[in-house]
Amino acid sequence: MRIPLIAGNWKMNMNHESGKDLVRKISNKVSASDTEVVVCCPFPMLLEIGKCLSDSSIMLGAQNMHWENSGAFTGEISADMLLELGVKYVIIGHSERRQIFLETNHMINLKVKKALERQIVPILCVGELLNERETQQTERVLRDQLENSLVNITTQEASKIVIAYEPVWAIGTGKTATPEQAAETIGFIRGWLKEKYGETLSEKVRILYGGSVKPDNISEIMESPNIDGALVGGASLNDEDFINIIHFQHSS
Ligand SMILES: O=C[C@H](O)COP(=O)(O)O
Protein backbone atom coordinates (compact mmCIF):
# COMPACT_ATOMS: atom_id res chain seq x y z
CA MET A 1 0.00 0.00 0.00
CA ARG A 2 1.64 3.25 -1.14
CA ILE A 3 0.86 6.42 0.80
CA PRO A 4 -0.31 9.21 -1.54
CA LEU A 5 1.99 12.21 -1.68
CA ILE A 6 1.15 15.76 -2.74
CA ALA A 7 4.23 17.96 -3.14
CA GLY A 8 4.04 21.69 -3.80
CA ASN A 9 6.88 23.26 -5.75
CA TRP A 10 6.91 27.02 -5.28
CA LYS A 11 9.75 27.42 -7.80
CA MET A 12 11.14 31.00 -7.59
CA ASN A 13 7.96 32.52 -6.14
CA MET A 14 6.73 33.95 -2.83
CA ASN A 15 8.61 35.81 -0.09
CA HIS A 16 8.92 35.27 3.66
CA GLU A 17 5.63 36.93 4.52
CA SER A 18 3.47 35.49 1.74
CA GLY A 19 5.11 32.09 2.21
CA LYS A 20 4.48 31.99 5.95
CA ASP A 21 0.91 33.14 5.44
CA LEU A 22 0.35 30.41 2.87
CA VAL A 23 1.74 27.54 4.96
CA ARG A 24 -0.19 28.69 8.04
CA LYS A 25 -3.42 28.61 6.08
CA ILE A 26 -2.58 25.20 4.64
CA SER A 27 -1.47 23.64 7.92
CA ASN A 28 -4.67 24.84 9.63
CA LYS A 29 -6.69 22.85 7.13
CA VAL A 30 -4.46 19.81 6.73
CA SER A 31 -4.26 17.34 9.56
CA ALA A 32 -2.17 14.17 9.63
CA SER A 33 -4.13 12.00 7.27
CA ASP A 34 -3.72 9.31 4.69
CA THR A 35 -1.95 11.73 2.36
CA GLU A 36 1.59 13.02 2.90
CA VAL A 37 2.13 16.68 2.04
CA VAL A 38 5.43 18.38 1.23
CA VAL A 39 6.13 22.04 0.56
CA CYS A 40 9.27 22.72 -1.50
CA CYS A 41 10.11 26.38 -1.01
CA PRO A 42 13.10 28.46 -2.19
CA PHE A 43 16.33 28.06 -0.18
CA PRO A 44 16.24 31.41 1.70
CA MET A 45 12.78 30.60 3.10
CA LEU A 46 13.51 27.06 4.32
CA LEU A 47 14.33 28.09 7.89
CA GLU A 48 11.24 30.25 8.46
CA ILE A 49 8.85 28.00 6.56
CA GLY A 50 10.26 25.02 8.47
CA LYS A 51 9.50 26.80 11.77
CA CYS A 52 5.92 27.45 10.64
CA LEU A 53 5.52 23.77 9.82
CA SER A 54 7.07 22.45 13.03
CA ASP A 55 3.72 21.59 14.64
CA SER A 56 2.16 20.35 11.47
CA SER A 57 2.25 17.07 9.57
CA ILE A 58 3.39 18.91 6.44
CA MET A 59 7.01 18.23 5.56
CA LEU A 60 9.67 20.58 4.29
CA GLY A 61 11.24 20.09 0.88
CA ALA A 62 13.93 21.80 -1.20
CA GLN A 63 14.01 22.27 -4.96
CA ASN A 64 17.60 21.27 -5.67
CA MET A 65 20.93 20.41 -4.01
CA HIS A 66 24.56 19.76 -4.94
CA TRP A 67 26.12 16.30 -4.81
CA GLU A 68 29.34 17.28 -3.01
CA ASN A 69 29.53 17.67 0.77
CA SER A 70 31.31 21.04 0.72
CA GLY A 71 33.89 23.02 -1.21
CA ALA A 72 34.32 25.65 -3.89
CA PHE A 73 30.88 25.44 -5.51
CA THR A 74 29.70 29.05 -5.55
CA GLY A 75 25.96 29.38 -5.34
CA GLU A 76 25.34 25.75 -4.41
CA ILE A 77 23.73 24.10 -1.38
CA SER A 78 24.75 20.75 0.14
CA ALA A 79 22.59 17.96 1.51
CA ASP A 80 23.96 18.60 5.01
CA MET A 81 22.92 22.25 4.81
CA LEU A 82 19.42 21.13 3.89
CA LEU A 83 19.37 18.62 6.75
CA GLU A 84 20.29 21.37 9.21
CA LEU A 85 17.15 23.20 8.12
CA GLY A 86 14.91 20.16 8.59
CA VAL A 87 14.49 19.28 4.92
CA LYS A 88 13.03 15.81 4.34
CA TYR A 89 12.49 15.83 0.56
CA VAL A 90 14.41 17.31 -2.36
CA ILE A 91 13.30 17.72 -5.96
CA ILE A 92 16.04 16.48 -8.28
CA GLY A 93 16.29 16.82 -12.04
CA HIS A 94 13.24 19.04 -12.54
CA SER A 95 12.87 19.80 -16.26
CA GLU A 96 13.61 23.48 -15.53
CA ARG A 97 16.95 22.41 -14.05
CA ARG A 98 17.61 20.12 -16.99
CA GLN A 99 16.67 22.69 -19.64
CA ILE A 100 17.66 26.07 -18.22
CA PHE A 101 20.63 25.01 -16.08
CA LEU A 102 21.75 22.18 -18.35
CA GLU A 103 21.71 19.47 -15.71
CA THR A 104 22.60 16.10 -17.16
CA ASN A 105 21.44 12.65 -16.11
CA HIS A 106 24.92 12.08 -14.71
CA MET A 107 24.67 15.13 -12.42
CA ILE A 108 21.18 14.06 -11.44
CA ASN A 109 22.47 10.57 -10.63
CA LEU A 110 25.13 12.03 -8.31
CA LYS A 111 22.50 14.16 -6.58
CA VAL A 112 20.11 11.23 -6.11
CA LYS A 113 22.93 9.18 -4.58
CA LYS A 114 23.94 11.94 -2.20
CA ALA A 115 20.35 12.62 -1.12
CA LEU A 116 19.85 8.92 -0.37
CA GLU A 117 23.14 8.75 1.52
CA ARG A 118 21.96 11.63 3.72
CA GLN A 119 18.45 10.22 4.05
CA ILE A 120 16.70 13.01 2.23
CA VAL A 121 14.01 11.60 -0.04
CA PRO A 122 14.76 12.50 -3.65
CA ILE A 123 11.80 13.34 -5.88
CA LEU A 124 13.38 12.41 -9.19
CA CYS A 125 11.72 14.20 -12.12
CA VAL A 126 11.50 12.71 -15.58
CA GLY A 127 9.49 13.71 -18.62
CA GLU A 128 9.50 14.19 -22.37
CA LEU A 129 9.32 17.31 -24.55
CA LEU A 130 6.35 17.94 -26.83
CA ASN A 131 8.20 17.01 -30.01
CA GLU A 132 9.42 13.82 -28.35
CA ARG A 133 5.83 12.83 -27.53
CA GLU A 134 4.66 13.76 -31.00
CA THR A 135 7.36 11.60 -32.58
CA GLN A 136 6.58 8.61 -30.34
CA GLN A 137 9.84 8.90 -28.41
CA THR A 138 8.34 9.22 -24.93
CA GLU A 139 9.31 5.74 -23.74
CA ARG A 140 12.82 5.98 -25.18
CA VAL A 141 13.39 9.34 -23.46
CA LEU A 142 12.03 8.13 -20.14
CA ARG A 143 14.05 4.91 -20.26
CA ASP A 144 17.18 6.93 -20.94
CA GLN A 145 16.46 9.37 -18.08
CA LEU A 146 15.64 6.57 -15.64
CA GLU A 147 18.57 4.32 -16.55
CA ASN A 148 21.11 7.12 -16.38
CA SER A 149 19.72 8.87 -13.31
CA LEU A 150 19.65 5.64 -11.34
CA VAL A 151 23.08 4.25 -12.20
CA ASN A 152 24.48 2.26 -9.22
CA ILE A 153 21.34 2.77 -7.16
CA THR A 154 20.61 -0.48 -5.32
CA THR A 155 17.17 -2.00 -4.89
CA GLN A 156 17.16 -0.99 -1.25
CA GLU A 157 18.06 2.59 -2.14
CA ALA A 158 15.54 2.69 -4.99
CA SER A 159 12.75 1.77 -2.58
CA LYS A 160 13.21 5.21 -0.93
CA ILE A 161 12.93 7.26 -4.11
CA VAL A 162 9.85 9.11 -5.32
CA ILE A 163 9.57 9.55 -9.09
CA ALA A 164 7.65 12.45 -10.61
CA TYR A 165 6.55 12.07 -14.21
CA GLU A 166 6.19 15.57 -15.65
CA PRO A 167 5.59 15.87 -19.38
CA VAL A 168 7.49 19.09 -20.12
CA TRP A 169 4.73 20.31 -22.45
CA ALA A 170 2.24 20.21 -19.57
CA ILE A 171 4.26 22.30 -17.10
CA GLY A 172 2.77 25.73 -16.46
CA THR A 173 0.95 25.61 -19.78
CA GLY A 174 -2.54 24.72 -18.58
CA LYS A 175 -2.27 21.65 -20.84
CA THR A 176 -2.57 18.56 -18.69
CA ALA A 177 -1.77 15.11 -19.98
CA THR A 178 -5.07 13.27 -20.31
CA PRO A 179 -5.66 10.84 -17.46
CA GLU A 180 -5.10 8.06 -20.02
CA GLN A 181 -1.73 9.51 -21.12
CA ALA A 182 -0.63 9.99 -17.50
CA ALA A 183 -1.77 6.50 -16.51
CA GLU A 184 -0.16 4.85 -19.52
CA THR A 185 3.17 6.64 -19.12
CA ILE A 186 3.35 6.11 -15.37
CA GLY A 187 2.46 2.46 -16.03
CA PHE A 188 5.49 2.35 -18.34
CA ILE A 189 7.70 3.79 -15.56
CA ARG A 190 6.43 1.19 -13.09
CA GLY A 191 7.10 -1.49 -15.70
CA TRP A 192 10.65 -0.21 -16.11
CA LEU A 193 11.16 -0.38 -12.33
CA LYS A 194 9.90 -3.96 -12.35
CA GLU A 195 12.30 -4.91 -15.15
CA LYS A 196 15.25 -3.29 -13.39
CA TYR A 197 14.56 -3.99 -9.71
CA GLY A 198 11.84 -6.65 -9.60
CA GLU A 199 8.16 -6.63 -8.80
CA THR A 200 8.34 -6.05 -5.04
CA LEU A 201 10.34 -2.85 -5.49
CA SER A 202 8.21 -1.66 -8.39
CA GLU A 203 5.12 -1.90 -6.20
CA LYS A 204 6.79 0.12 -3.41
CA VAL A 205 7.97 3.21 -5.29
CA ARG A 206 5.63 6.17 -5.37
CA ILE A 207 5.19 7.77 -8.77
CA LEU A 208 3.65 11.23 -8.98
CA TYR A 209 2.18 13.10 -11.93
CA GLY A 210 3.09 16.75 -12.46
CA GLY A 211 2.01 19.33 -15.05
CA SER A 212 -0.89 21.79 -14.64
CA VAL A 213 -2.46 19.85 -11.76
CA LYS A 214 -5.46 21.77 -10.42
CA PRO A 215 -8.32 21.05 -8.00
CA ASP A 216 -10.60 20.23 -10.92
CA ASN A 217 -8.38 17.61 -12.54
CA ILE A 218 -6.68 15.92 -9.57
CA SER A 219 -9.43 13.36 -8.91
CA GLU A 220 -9.40 12.20 -12.51
CA ILE A 221 -5.60 11.94 -12.52
CA MET A 222 -5.60 9.98 -9.26
CA GLU A 223 -8.04 7.41 -10.61
CA SER A 224 -5.17 5.40 -12.06
CA PRO A 225 -3.96 2.89 -9.45
CA ASN A 226 -0.40 3.53 -10.65
CA ILE A 227 -0.46 7.25 -9.80
CA ASP A 228 0.39 7.98 -6.18
CA GLY A 229 0.06 11.75 -6.04
CA ALA A 230 1.14 14.97 -7.67
CA LEU A 231 3.96 17.46 -7.96
CA VAL A 232 2.12 20.76 -8.08
CA GLY A 233 3.61 24.05 -9.30
CA GLY A 234 1.28 27.02 -9.87
CA ALA A 235 -1.65 25.68 -7.87
CA SER A 236 0.56 25.19 -4.78
CA LEU A 237 0.87 28.99 -4.49
CA ASN A 238 -2.80 29.39 -3.65
CA ASP A 239 -3.99 28.04 -0.31
CA GLU A 240 -7.49 27.04 -1.42
CA ASP A 241 -6.29 25.33 -4.58
CA PHE A 242 -3.53 23.45 -2.79
CA ILE A 243 -5.84 22.38 0.04
CA ASN A 244 -8.43 21.15 -2.45
CA ILE A 245 -5.75 19.18 -4.27
CA ILE A 246 -4.58 17.63 -0.98
CA HIS A 247 -8.17 16.68 -0.19
CA PHE A 248 -8.70 15.19 -3.63
CA GLN A 249 -10.24 11.99 -2.38
CA HIS A 250 -13.11 13.94 -0.81
CA SER A 251 -13.89 15.85 -3.99
CA SER A 252 -14.26 12.74 -6.17
O1 LIG B 1 7.11 21.06 -10.19
C1 LIG B 1 5.99 21.28 -10.65
C2 LIG B 1 5.73 21.19 -12.06
O2 LIG B 1 6.73 21.77 -12.82
C3 LIG B 1 4.35 21.53 -12.49
O3 LIG B 1 4.13 22.92 -12.53
P1 LIG B 1 2.65 23.45 -12.85
O4 LIG B 1 1.73 22.75 -11.89
O5 LIG B 1 2.70 24.92 -12.64
O6 LIG B 1 2.35 23.05 -14.26
UniProtKB/TrEMBL annotation:
Binding site for substrate: 9-11, 172, 212, 233-234
Highest taxon in the source lineage: Bacteria
Main location per the UniProt record: cytoplasm
Keyword annotations from UniProtKB, A to Z: Cytoplasm, Gluconeogenesis, Glycolysis, Isomerase
Record's catalysed reaction(s): D-glyceraldehyde 3-phosphate = dihydroxyacetone phosphate
Entry's Gene Ontology molecular function annotations: triose-phosphate isomerase activity
GO BP terms in the entry: gluconeogenesis; glyceraldehyde-3-phosphate biosynthetic process; glycerol catabolic process; glycolytic process
Keyword Cell cycle (UniProt): no
PROSITE patterns assigned to the protein according to its UniProt record, in alphabetical order: TIM_1 (PS00171), TIM_2 (PS51440)
Assigned protein family: Belongs to the triosephosphate isomerase family.
Function: Involved in the gluconeogenesis. Catalyzes stereospecifically the conversion of dihydroxyacetone phosphate (DHAP) to D-glyceraldehyde-3-phosphate (G3P).
Subunit structure: Homodimer.
Protein name (database record): Triosephosphate isomerase
Taxonomic lineage from the root: Bacteria, Bacillati, Bacillota, Clostridia, Peptostreptococcales
Encoding gene per record: tpiA
